Amino acid sequence: MGDSESRHIARDSLFIMADLRVHGQEGEHRLKVRNLSAGGLMAEGTVKVSLGAGVQVALRNAGWVEGTVAWVQDNRFGVAFAEEIDPKTVRGGLPSRGTSEPAVIKRAWPSGASSPIPPRKIL
After folding, report:
1. Is residue 114 assigned to a domain?
2. What gap in Å lies between CA 16 and CA 110, rounded to an integer?
3. C-alpha closest to that of 85 among 9, 27, 28, 29
4. pTM of the prediction?
5. Residues 6+ apart with CB under 8 A from 114
6. Which of 58, 69, 89, 118 has the fewest C-beta atoms lying within 10 Å of its C-beta?
7. Number of Cβ atoms within 10 Å of the Cβ of 65
8. Which domain holds residue 23?
9. Which domain CATH number covers 15?
10. In whole angstroms, what is the distance from residue 29 CA to residue 106 CA?
């Protein structure tokens, strides 16, 4: 897929933290994920990566995802995933519970006190 074709892939702007492993380097690096699509992401961080380097990114609710550094500019870089992911899984705050029912958040109040705010459904 060429550059002009990949620009048309839907991507979500978001801000989440993730861990990165660079093949051939020891340790993990913390970075900010700025946008995400099924085929890759744009990240920002102090880690030094090279074009074409193999990486693994730990994404919330998706685990470690294999990829390759597709571009580098200053402290930002793009990663093309080896296999597509579901960005909705990463964007969601809670792991799937295997039910279509929305999660309900309940606030803890001192015993005997009633909550001034009713619980709300998370879609």
Report:
1. no
2. 33
3. 9
4. 0.67
5. none
6. 118
7. 20
8. 3-91
9. 2.40.10.220
10. 35
